[in-house]
Amino acid sequence: MPLPKAELHLHIEGTLEPELAFALAARNAVELPFENTEALRRAYDFEDLQSFLDLYYSLMAVLRTEDDFADLTDAYLARAAAQGVRHAEIFFDPQAHISRGVPMGTVVDGLARALDASEQRHGISTRLIMCFLRDRSAESAMETLEAAKPYLHRITAVGLDSAEADNPPSKFREVYEAAAALGLRKVAHAGEEGPASYVREALDVLGVERVDHGLRCLEDAELVARLARERIPLTLCPLSNVRLRVIDTLEDHPLDRMMDAGLMCTVNSDDPAYFGGYVGDTFHAVREALSLDEERLRELARNSFLASFLEDDEERRAR
Ligand code: HPA
Ligand code: ZN
Questions:
Q1: Which of 50, 134, 201, 293 has the fewest CB atoms within 10 Å, measured from its CB?
Q2: ipTM of this model?
Q3: Does residue 160 form part of some domain?
Q4: What is the pLDDT of residues 150-172, one digit of tens each?
Q5: Is 212 touching ligand 1 by the criterion CB < 6 Å?
Q6: How crowded is residue 124: how many other Cβ atoms within 10 Å of its Cβ?
Q7: Span 207-237, pLDDT tens digits
Q8: Is residue 315 part of a domain?
Q9: Is 273 in the pocket of ligand 1 (CB under 6 A)?
Q10: pLDDT tier for residue 315 given thresholds of 50, 70 and 90
């Protein structure tokens, strides 16, 4: 039996496996710039975050209908369930779809169809986190929040993703204030490729409850002490860090040192179709690479529920 766990850092568009990409391309008569799944897999050799994002956004062309989003989500939930996931807080990128002519309603209704069946079908409770693309304007983020207003009952939190360098959290101060006023909770990617100061901004300017990645907090000892003291969860994604060359090898990953420093770490898959594993695979890989003992693994699993947006009673049931 795999360890029960929650997944808190998962981009639903990053669960698009090559086989499903080709099936959806055929269903929607979309031409992919790859001959077959093998050729596509060979393109999963990334140099940095941007080289991944280029492929990630281009493959989204196959996602067009409510059925597509429902099928994508159901496929993720089935894989996650097999690896012990009991609760998933799922990011989606509406701007990447709206700008291709796929309306917010198509995206959210498709995701929601799969999520509504998830507890029954897969034993996984879920939340949705709507991400703003930080390499687009603050105005575009605000328009996205506006477009989400009819669907807010489906959305728990806002997040911030895409190309981090030169797109600091402070650019999105107003839209985060507006989101909070609508009752949405707040997370943001920070300190993946961007500096430790972006982690500070995410906390102090945006008021996030959790930091996605947060790895580069390690460059600022005072910040590490604060994150530990305030028990701010970090949603780490070790396989992603290796594939996007944020760190050289998994053996070099600072996860164990971060836990030693008292940081509240969780382990997640980020974009599992692209980075070589789902969250159970990730647990297995870090256990091997860093020689983590059972107690450490249980702590990571426990943290994943404690850092989730589940209410206390739900959290106990999920564990
Ligand atoms: N970082 C930033 N944006 C993203 C990622 C990531 O790892 N995956 C999907 N969007
Ligand atoms: Zn991410």
A1: 293
A2: 0.96
A3: yes
A4: 999 999 999 999 999 999 999 99
A5: no
A6: 21
A7: 999 999 999 999 999 999 999 999 999 999 9
A8: no
A9: no
A10: confident
CA 131–ligand 2 middle distance (angstroms): 10
- Mutate which of 10, 57, 192, 282 for ligand 1 pocket (most atoms within 8 A of beta carbon): 192
The CATH number covering residue 52 comes to 3.20.20.140
Confidence class for position 312, pLDDT limits 50, 70, 90: confident
Q: Which ligand is nearest to the CA of 243?
A: 1
Residue 55 lies inside a defined structural domain of this protein? yes
Domain membership of residue 314 (yes or no) is no
C-alpha of residue 163 to centroid of ligand 1, in Å: 7
Q: Judge if the beta carbon of residue 243 lies within 6 A of ligand 1.
A: no
